[in-house]
Amino acid sequence: MSFLAELGAALPDGTVLTDPDVTDRFRMDRTTWLTPGCPVAVALPTTTAEVAAAVKVAATHRVPIVPRGAGSSLCGGSQAIDGALTLSLERMDRIVDLDTADELVVVEPGVMNADITRATSEHGLFYPPDPASRDFCSIGGNVATNAGGLCCVKYGVTRDYVQRLEVVLADGTVIETGHDTVKGVAGLDMTGLFVGSEGTLGIVTRAMLRLRRRPSGAATMVAFFPTLTAAGRAVASIAGSELTPSLMEIMDRATVNVVEDALGMGLDREAASLLLLQSDAPEPLRGTEVARAAELCSSAGASYTAATEDPDEAEALMQARRMAGPVLEQLGELIWDDVGVRRSRIPALLGRIEEAGERHGAQVQTFGHAGDGNMHPTLLVPRDDPDARRRALLAFDDIVEAALDLGGTITGEHGVGSIKAPFLEREVGRANLALQRRIKRTLDPDGLLNPGRWL
Fold it and tell me: CATH assignment of 219-325?
């Protein structure tokens, strides 16, 4: 029996798509400057058993598999591959269980990040990892890339909240990892191994996530700076202080201006940088923390600072930061970078980013998570301009090299995918990378899971 015939027999009617006009929407992710392949089929399972059945058929016929969530990858991690099966988990979108006593939630991989916040808020709980794409990125993708977000400076990243996983391996075997208990050190940390593995080791079909008690409120500060270097000094100063902000985000002038064009918020168009900080500490500490942060910003050279505890004003400022990416996407093709350095080295990184853009005549907008050193220099390329794309890619490479020169990382949260594989060995070392590849061969000896990515 052919692969497609066997796959169709193994899955319910309507869950296997082969018409190119229908499967076309599953080819791309948000790495729009890459050319995706054409899948042999798209499977849309609704249960773990159906995922396992599809994987077993693919393994029998040696057909590669591309796991796909919401298609919001910024590193080419979910783009289709010629002749492969795209396994879309978008229909596995149930919140299976919400345990308010133990502050746990069990979800399928297609659940959107923001849906967990909405489901838990009425119980006074929240799920802290909050990518700017939280409204359209799925938990399966978050787990696959160990996604971060705006609140990571205080609360940590996805890995810190994944307690258990259900995973389908490359041969269709289903395993469970982790523990129901807060503590548990029996055996190797298999949960940690799968978090951040970008679909190369297994396919996550269920996740138990830890929740936190929702803070009672927040105080928010915004500061404008005449230079990016001054903003970097402020970030380093706050990071080295006694403060524990729940959020600290940065946007450069170019980003502020495109957001202002779209939202008309009255942001300072002349400032070189905007710094946004929140404290969700209990009252009255939150106000004290924000006031102290404003003092440190002023000492670093801020031209203006303001603070508010009004939730509507705070949400408007947060929206300005979250809309940076979507607004830029309306202006052209984006090549997203995602590098991280120690917070004390942010000023040096910002300088190197500016130099890279000027050297290659590329338009770079920088925004990101200043609180944990994770910057998102984003290159804006006019559509249908190959030379501009060439120059932007040269700047992209220089920015990655700059992060490595400063002792940083090539990716803080987007993943390596298919765009940063050439830099991985320099960061992790040859022996380390060889070990990772041996682990890959152990779990996926035929190399069927998300081939052509970093492993």
Answer: 3.30.70.2190
Half-sphere CA count of 13, side-chain side, radius 13 A: 0
Edge-to-edge strand list for the sheet holding 174-178: 95-99, 104-107, 203-210, 162-168, 174-178
Fold of 3-88: 3.30.43
Both structure tokens of 217? 């409120």
Tokens linked to 2: 């052919």
- Give CA separation, 359 vs 351, 355, 386, in Å: 12, 6, 18
SS3 content of the chain, % helix, strand, coil (to 5): 40, 20, 40
CATH architecture of the domain formed by 95-213 = 2-Layer Sandwich (3.30)
Mean pLDDT of the chain: 95
Q: Give per-residue pLDDT as tens, 140-151.
A: 999 999 999 888
Q: What is the DSSP letter of 15?
A: S
Closest CA to 213 of 152, 129, 280, 125: 125
Please state the pTM of the whole predicted model.
0.93
Q: Is the pLDDT of residue 228 over 90?
A: no
Report DSSP letters for 276-339, one per residue. Answer: EEEE-PSTTHHHHHHHHHHHHHHHHT-SEEEEE--HHHHHHHHHHHHTHHHHHHTTSEEEE--E
Query: How does DSSP classify residue 48?
Result: H
